[in-house]
């Protein structure tokens, strides 16, 4: 952020500097208004190096401008003036003020700084560049308002400075307080206007576009005036100038939003894209309205006043550099680089983790359903189970641990940002997942029951070898089904598989461990060694799960989720 425009009354200063013709008195008043009416600070190293300026972005920009462009000497300013009272910046009134005295003078100097239209309303006169005070008539006021609007249309944050000199006896006092404690708020003289440019960071517009493509609505809530807010939102891509709804409630002021009746506010909140001149309460109110309408809400903020909204939101994101400790403590995620583009990364990874959980659930349910049904039917019909306790423990070990690790390591892809967002009440197991796991479970149950009842005839083997064939086929079915589980709806399950080295490594480890289990741990696992033909048969049966998965994904599923349909029928 930096100062790019500087007006003395209606006269624009070139290069944001005061021309030599500007009165020294005006410059001194500017020094006081910028250097003392601030929460920032300037540290000047004794070695003569560049001064170090700290504070909020706005304060740092103004102090830097005053030092480098106006020639302000902060140390001299502090020596020559005594601050009497400070009115801290108020997010509702959008201004801050101080009263001070110069050494060897009894006059009290009052300075106000803040939102241009707010400060302008407090002034009845203005300084010309020569230092002569002129009465601010209606015509001059309208011209100044036009200057403010033009700066706002250029996405500049317009700050005005006002000044007044009074005698102590002229100042209104509160009981028990010193003169100057209550600052004059009218009859002031306008010093000038400053336009601050806070350009969009590289990548912000692209990030906003990515969020919109992902079905995420971006709403900008700011304390800037409505013209500045509209210009910045257009520059960032939040507002589209060609949008027919742009003038139909897309941009409102905070006071307008909070004065809506409840029904009107709930009706219009979805259409609002920009809220200007807003207070922290307005931000909190919008979050509450959006949550009441069933939306999942994420809020970014950096100030102490943002804490209620950050806490109320489903996901609070605070800024790691400019954010206050209160904001960080109230948030769920801290953005270390203070860049909105990082929100897209958060969104992408959040969707990736959610999808990976779905993959594992689908895979795990297939394993459990198949194992349960096979053992139950076999036990009920023959009085014995093909999968022993040790074998089931082995399946749980390699499928729960290694399977989870394999399916949880897929990295986010761009396709995730093209999917619609997940609703607050949307079930974790979607219709497509039910379709996939039912198809794979039925296939596994079908072939394994054939092996259970006809395996010894088909392969000409005894019961022990038959049970080993069932166990081996069951495990290999899960290995091949892990590939199917990588893509819940896409037919090409091998897309990007070579990029996930960990997945391939886990598949390899699982196969090696299964070979060891079958061929070398006979007593431990109750298995018999298999010949090459029997291994080939097991692999052939298991690999059929790939074409089955491809065919099944051609079957459309209803958009309405299964549990919603069941609820509707039951009601």
UniProtKB/TrEMBL annotation:
Domain called Cation-transporting P-type ATPase C-terminal: residue spans: 385-554
Name of the protein in question: Calcium-transporting ATPase
InterPro entries hit by this protein: ATPase_P-typ_cation-transptr_C (IPR006068), ATPase_P-typ_cyto_dom_N (IPR023299), ATPase_P-typ_TM_dom_sf (IPR023298), HAD-like_sf (IPR036412), HAD_sf (IPR023214), P-type_ATPase_IIB (IPR006408), P_typ_ATPase (IPR001757)
Membrane topology, as annotated: Multi-pass membrane protein
NCBIfam families according to UniProt: ATPase-IIB_Ca, ATPase_P-type
Main localization of the protein described in the UniProt heading: membrane
Pfam family, one: Cation_ATPase_C
EC number of the protein: 7.2.2.10
Transmembrane feature ranges: 434-453, 502-520, 532-552
Catalytic activity: Ca(2+)(in) + ATP + H2O = Ca(2+)(out) + ADP + phosphate + H(+)
Family membership noted in the UniProt record: Belongs to the cation transport ATPase (P-type) (TC 3.A.3) family. Type IIB subfamily.
Species whose genome carries this gene: Papaver somniferum (Opium poppy)
GO molecular function: ATP binding; ATP hydrolysis activity; calmodulin binding; metal ion binding; P-type calcium transporter activity
One Gene Ontology CC term in the entry: plasma membrane
Main EC class the enzyme belongs to: translocase
Keywords in alphabetical order: Acetylation, ATP-binding, Calcium, Calcium transport, Calmodulin-binding, Ion transport, Magnesium, Membrane, Metal-binding, Nucleotide-binding, Translocase, Transmembrane, Transmembrane helix, Transport
């Amino acid at each position: 952020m930096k100062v790019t425009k500087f007006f003395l009354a209606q006269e624009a200063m070139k290069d944001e500097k005061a021309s030599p013709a500007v009165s020294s008195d005006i410059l001194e008043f500017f020094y006081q208004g910028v250097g003392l009416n601030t929460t920032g600070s300037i540290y000047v190293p004794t070695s003569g190096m560049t001064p170090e300026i700290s504070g909020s972005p706005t304060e740092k920009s103004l102090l830097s401008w005053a030092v480098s462009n106006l020639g302000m000497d902060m140390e001299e300013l502090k020596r020559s003036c005594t601050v009497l009272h400070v009115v801290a910046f108020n997010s509702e009134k959008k201004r801050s003020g101080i009263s001070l005295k110069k050494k060897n003078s009894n006059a009290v100097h009052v300075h106000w700084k803040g939102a241009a239209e707010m400060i302008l309303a407090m002034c009845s006169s203005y300084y010309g560049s020569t230092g002569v005070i002129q009465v601010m008539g209606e015509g001059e006021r309208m011209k100044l308002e036009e200057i403010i609007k033009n700066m706002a249309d250029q996405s500049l944050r317009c700050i005005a400075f006002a000044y007044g000199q009074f005698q102590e006896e002229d100042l209104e006092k509160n009981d028990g307080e010193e003169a100057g404690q209550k600052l004059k708020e009218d009859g002031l003289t306008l010093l000038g206007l400053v336009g601050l440019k806070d350009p969009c960071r590289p990548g912000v517009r692209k990030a906003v576009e990515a969020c919109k493509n992902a079905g995420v609505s971006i709403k900008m809530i700011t304390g800037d005036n409505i013209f500045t807010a509209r210009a910045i939102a257009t520059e960032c891509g939040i507002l589209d100038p060609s949008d027919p709804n742009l003038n139909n409630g897309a941009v409102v002021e905070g006071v307008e939003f909070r004065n809506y009746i409840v029904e009107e506010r709930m009706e219009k909140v979805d259409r609002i894209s920009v809220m200007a001149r807003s207070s922290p309460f307005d931000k909190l109110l919008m979050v509450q309205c959006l949550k009441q309408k069933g939306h999942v809400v994420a809020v970014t903020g950096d100030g102490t006043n943002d804490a209620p909204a950050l806490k109320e939101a489903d996901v609070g994101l605070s800024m790691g550099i400019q954010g206050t400790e209160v904001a960080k403590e109230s948030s769920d995620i801290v953005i270390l680089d203070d860049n909105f583009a990082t929100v897209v990364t958060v969104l992408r990874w959040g969707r990736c983790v959610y999808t990976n959980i779905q993959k594992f659930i689908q895979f795990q349910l297939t394993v459990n359903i198949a194992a349960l049904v096979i053992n139950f039917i076999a036990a009920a019909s023959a009085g014995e189970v093909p999968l022993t306790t040790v074998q089931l423990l082995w399946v749980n070990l390699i499928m729960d641990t290694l399977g989870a690790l394999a399916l949880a390591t897929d990295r986010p892809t761009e396709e995730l940002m093209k999917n619609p967002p997940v609703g607050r009440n949307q079930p974790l197991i979607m219709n497509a997942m039910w379709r996939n796991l039912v198809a794979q479970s039925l296939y596994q149950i079908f072939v394994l029951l054939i092996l259970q009842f006809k395996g010894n005839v088909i392969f000409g083997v005894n019961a022990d070898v038959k049970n080993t064939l069932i166990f081996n086929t069951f495990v290999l079915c899960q290995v091949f089904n892990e590939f199917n589980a990588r893509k819940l709806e896409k037919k090409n399950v091998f897309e990007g598989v070579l990029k996930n080295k960990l997945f391939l490594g886990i598949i390899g480890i699982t196969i090696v461990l299964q070979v060891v289990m079958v061929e070398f741990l006979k007593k431990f696992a109750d298995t018999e060694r298999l010949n090459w033909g029997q291994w080939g048969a097991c692999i052939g049966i298991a690999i059929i799960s790939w074409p089955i998965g491809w065919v099944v994904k051609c079957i459309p599923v209803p958009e309405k989720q299964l549990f919603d349909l069941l609820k509707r029928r039951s009601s």
